[in-house]
Write a structure and sequence with these properties.
With 560 residues, the chain is an alpha+beta fold. 37% of the residues lie in helices and 17% in strands. This is TNF receptor-associated factor 4.
């Protein structure tokens, strides 16, 4: 089929110069419009491409045409996309007719045969094109003027510091005291109280004392968007109590299924049997193991306490709120989850050292063998409890930090220390908080190798998006294919951001500890460039956007 016979999507936007005199055989039998890119049915109807596209791919339905053949009981009038075939003669005849340029409304007065539409549009000054800097659509004839005076991504000089800045960021970032990339020379009154004349550094000092400083509601992490000076916050909390309870309920129900599952099948059993086994194992270690036995008893007490707290969690708003606050108080009492994990890890190390010492000693007596066996059992039990604490920590991260729109902005704190750790190989990588493609959707983490991986060690940072186990994976579409965009945010100008794209593919949900399903960019950014241009206040910012593609099961076939 020649290219001149198939009209492009853009060419289809043209209109006939004299549509009123269009002969009937060049009109669609269904919609009566010009039969563009026409098809014929087995019984002789002519349908335009749009009407054919609306038919099922293979399941036959009654022809939407209005010709006499469609009413003939002797004709086969059930059709589908695959039963229609291109009508070359009608296409050739229609594309010889004159049309107006699709840009007539923009001012173009050109007329030409329909088949020449694409050639005309390639040179038409009234055609809209995208500015390669900002992506905004503008007329081709106005593109140069747009780039020089209107494009929000063009570079302009700052009057204060004389540095070139992206125009769109001049007011919003460069000359904004509240922006991290504010001009050092720019001065302005406080935007909250309108007092003084501050530069950025002086403004930050003033902010701690500003009586009009906006303060987010204490329930902001749950979705309350109220912001006001601190003096107004007490009244808001009183007036919006019902709303805050609703937000607590909505947020906590996201993890209610997980908590119920843990209560039903994991934690109580561990509390009653597993923690007890840990104590039994520890008690079996004598002599030098007495200190460990004491620690194991303390572990049992703490583990029993935390398990009982989880037992109290119910998908009821009042109980949820009370249990959550009680659990938070409990966690604070021993320094938080990280402190508890550190205690467990230290205990695990001691047990392993004891086991190694027993094995390297005489080891032939019954007492030594029993001690080693007890130490081994205790070590295994502590390892199991550490894994359970990791699960608890993930649930809390999901509860407090998860975003539900497929986007994550991750602030990596303590960059210098994290970089030293990466170079030493302990740990090799960092993980972001979990985030989800949508509420009850796929769950991901960003994994960052600050010293590189797979041939990029020491030269480039490697970044991955890792698909992790989700409570709702049974109701997701599999296989999964998702487009991933990583963006390393420049602290001053967005035009200097480092952007990389990747594709994540997964045939089925991952196992609990499986990190192999990922989208990876091995050479994301050179380490020296990262350290020189992107670190601010010992932190870097990474933005990740995930967009799952429609599944094949939901995609209907099309015929062109």
């Amino acid at each position: 089929m020649s290219a001149g016979i198939v009209l492009s999507t853009r060419a289809l936007a043209a209109s006939l110069v004299d549509e009123r005199s269009l002969p009937g055989h060049l009109r669609c039998s269904s919609c009566s419009r010009p039969v563009t890119n026409s098809f014929q049915t087995p019984h002789g109807c002519r349908l335009c491409q749009s009407c054919v596209d609306s038919l099922p791919a293979t399941d036959k339905v009654r022809c939407p045409g209005k010709s006499d053949a469609c009413k003939d009981p002797d004709e086969e009038i059930d059709i589908c996309q695959s039963s229609c075939f291109p009508d070359i003669a009608s296409r050739r005849e229609l594309t010889k007719l004159k049309v107006f340029c699709p840009n007539k409304s923009e001012g173009c007065r050109a007329e030409f045969p329909w088949r020449q539409a694409d050639a005309h549009l390639a040179d038409c000054e009234f055609e809209k094109v995208k500015c390669e800097m900002c992506g905004e659509a503008t007329l081709k004839r106005e593109l140069d003027e747009h780039k020089s005076s209107a494009c929000r991504r063009r570079l302009v000089n700052c009057d204060d510091c004389k540095i070139k800045v992206v125009a769109g960021a001049m007011d919003s970032e460069h000359k904004n005291l509240q922006s991290m990339s504010c001009c050092r020379e720019f001065r302005d009154p406080c935007p909250h109280c309108r007092e003084g004349n501050f530069n950025r550094q002086a403004f930050l000092s003033h902010l701690s004392q500003c009586p009009q400083k906006p303060t987010p509601c204490r329930f902001a992490h749950l979705g309350c968007d109220f912001v006001a000076p601190a003096a107004e916050m007490a009244a808001h909390c009183s007036e919006a109590a019902d709303r805050h309870l609703q937000l607590i309920d909505a947020k906590l129900r996201v993890s209610s299924a997980s908590a119920q599952h843990s209560t039903a099948s994991g934690f109580p059993g561990a509390a009653a049997g597993g923690a007890g086994a840990a104590v039994d194992g520890a008690s079996a270690v004598t002599g030098s193991g007495e200190a460990v036995s004491k620690e194991m008893k303390d572990l049992e007490r703490r583990a029993m306490n935390i398990f009982s707290k989880f037992k109290g969690l119910q998908p009821n708003i009042a109980t949820w709120a009370l249990s959550t606050m009680s659990l938070e108080d409990f966690i604070k009492s021993f320094g938080g989850l990280q402190g508890f994990k550190t205690m467990l890890k230290n205990m695990d190390d001691k047990l392993r050292q004891m086991e190694a010492a027993e094995r390297s000693g005489a080891g032939t007596t019954g007492a030594s063998a029993a001690s080693a066996a007890a130490a081994s059992a205790s070590s295994a039990e502590v390892s199991r409890l550490i894994e359970q604490m990791r699960a608890i920590e993930l649930r809390f991260e999901t509860l407090e930090q998860t975003s539900f729109d497929g986007c994550l902005t991750w602030k990596v704190l303590g960059f210098a220390a994290r970089r030293r750790e990466a170079k030493s190989g302990s740990p090799v990588s960092l993980f972001s908080p979990p985030f989800m493609s949508k509420r009850y959707g796929y769950m991901f983490r960003v994994r960052l190798f600050l010293n590189g991986q797979e041939g990029a060690e020491g030269s480039h940072v490697t970044i991955q998006l890792v698909l992790i186990q989700s409570e709702y994976e049974d109701v997701q579409d599999w296989p999964l294919v998702a487009d991933v965009t990583f963006r390393l945010l420049h602290p001053r100008t967005r035009s200097d951001d480092v952007v990389a794209k990747a594709t994540l593919s997964a045939q089925k949900p991952p196992a609990a500890s499986d990190l192999s399903i990922n989208a990876s960019v091995t050479r994301f950014v050179r380490i020296d460039i990262l350290e020189e241009k992107f670190v601010r206040n010992d932190s870097i910012y990474i933005e990740t956007e995930v967009e799952p593609r429609p599944s094949e099961a939901n995609r209907r076939g099309r015929r062109r």
